[in-house]
Amino acid sequence: MSTLQIDFSAAGGSGGAPQKIVGIDLGTTNSLVAVMDLTSPRILSGIVPSVVSVSDKGEVIAGREARDMLITHPERTVYSVKRLMGRGLADVEEEVKLFPFRIAEGSDSVLKLRLGDKIMTPPEVSAYILRKLKHDAEVALGEPVTQAVITVPAYFNDAQRQATKDAGRIAGLEVLRLVNEPTAAALAYGLDKRKEGLVAVYDFGGGTFDISILRLHDGIFEVLATNGDTHLGGDDIDNLLLKIALEDIHSEWGRDLSADPTGVQLLRRAVIQAKEQLSFVPEAVIDLEYSGHRYQRHIGLDLYDRLIQPVVGRTLGPCRDCIKDSGVKIEEIDEVVMVGGSTRIPLVRSAVEKLFRKRPHTELNPDEVVALGAAVQAAILSGDVQDKLLLDVTPLSLGIETLGGLVSKLIHRNSTIPASATEAFTTAVDGQKNVLIHVVQGERELVKDCRSLARFDLKDIAPQPAGMARIEVRFLIDANGILNVTARDVRTGKEHSVEVKPSYGLTDEQVEAMILESFEKAEADFAERQVREARVEADTIMAATEKARKSEAYDTLEPTEQSAIDRAVNELLVVYHGNDHVLIRAKIDQLNTATEVLAHTIMNTAVSRMLKGTQL
Amino acid sequence: MQYYEALGLEPKLALDLEDLKKRFYDRSRQWHPDRFSRAAPEERQRALDMTATLNDAFRTLKAPVSRAEYFLEESGIPIPKEAPPELLEEVFEFNMALEELRGGDGSAREALLAAEARFNGMLTEIDASLEQLFPRHDASGDRTVLDEIRGALNRRRYIANLVRDAGKELNVHVAN
Q1: Which pTM was predicted?
Q2: Who's near A82: CB < 8 A, 6+ residues apart?
């Protein structure tokens, strides 16, 4: 057990209020953690960039520091890992070319990223982001956090959801619920103030796009239909601009920057800055100074709009399909809500307004609204909020492979979850010992056009003539949108074991192994971070003390007070390089006490000087 | 019948949609897994199973056609999958037009559109007749009414497939 947890249990007292469940928005670009206060949700700490990097010493870092390392160590820094979650090598081959890091060997069913000499799967990378959020939340709340609601794009398939859940487990979080991002946003918007109504949520983020249509009914948020694209977002706009800038630079500087990871990341940062400005001003400059060259390109809103039109246009098809599937008419929709950083783009806003013939809501910060909604859902689960209930749907149809590579659909898309279907299976030849069920997700009629989800093996069937065995299989999509399969031998009534082989993703055993490994590492990482943080604090107070020593106020101190400060500084310096953060903190406290009088005197001097200033 | 039980209803073909919705929302509030996230594992599993069945039930019963299909199946009356003989001539012409359009003969378009409109008209008629047959069955419990419903559902399924095929083909050519 880590020291911090012991501290917490002492501070929190035993048998008190149950632990808070936090709400986490695990975003493509940024992540946030929020919690429900008495009446409303609040963000717990600053934005954590969804970036993970490996330092020279082999230490894994997540968040802001890691984002800086995108420039200094691009080849072992991962961003937008969400786009790789639950995906196979063939899905991301195009995209990976743009990433500075490499894919490791043996990435058959699970992608493996090579970061320096470390090899990590996307769920492990995400787990580092989650650990950072968990830690930030614990610091902000002053109590341990072990349970969370994590948001996912509504259009995430089973593998992508499972990968997110795995990431939570690896990070030491019990993921009580995966909630769809647009639905979470609807919860945060407090739209249920209107008793009845139809709401469309347009969620355009860094890497994913979702549209959901909901019916509100007395605190029930019932999703009627959802649609989207898990590979469409602000990243695509960045890549468009990046491509143009790289071409420009090639002809202007006579050099191909794309082979230089640091150069590419600096340019990417410049491109993102220009993109963000174009949401507020009619012209921006992509500005890069690098290796003795300067590149500047002015981009006006006209050109920008024309450039990104195809990307924005790709969101409208899913919107129309979603409206059609929901069975409502566009003019019946009462409210349209905008979520995700990319909805700041003027062209996106006007396109949405034009389609829905309604001015969309943009009151809440589009970067925060999903995390806030996740916190509301967390409070629903803890029982703190009782007048709200979310009824979500599965975004994709679920089917099984039948003869001739055809799909037999069992649960249709937009079915309210939990949803289930039961099918009976039997053997085809005498003495057949197992039945293999191939489950796919998607809307097409041929297996090859759908997404393979997993193969379920009904093993150890008692030998009997063909067609005699009767095994009833229940396919159940739970409230997280994740498939559970159970089987029962109809004749004996006994549960039949099912072995799951996920097509893309980690097996349960692999996740368990990662949890074990991370548990050991986490203790070491944690202690190390504690020491690092204590040292940062020590640096701050020693610098302040050094500065104060040069002030007039220092001279007014009693000699005993001055020597007490000197002693405290020396003692702090002695423990500074040790590995005991408790000791460092004790010495920091000592120095704090020793400098109390000095701090007061400085403050008083400053105040009286200010008062004099006003008199003059 | 499990789906009716899940919503606290007697098995009947004619249902009041508003009442059905109210029952669904009330039971969702009570049984949704969200309400049991801190309960014991067995209780959580029970909430999950019950809510899944509730959702399956509401989805099936809210639409008249899926409701009737479920009712017949549970009553041991399978719906045949055969072409209704009275439609054979119509279907033959329809398939000809479809082939011609696929072969690039644009003039077949008119015939196909006309057939599509006729089929849609038939669907409306069948739906109206189901509305009549439902309360008749509920009042009498007469199995011959179920046979009539079975015939109507078979026709409906067949025609709905034809409309879907026509739609697919017509849309492809509109997009050109």
Answers
A1: 0.82
A2: A26, A27, A28, A50, A126, A206, A207, A208
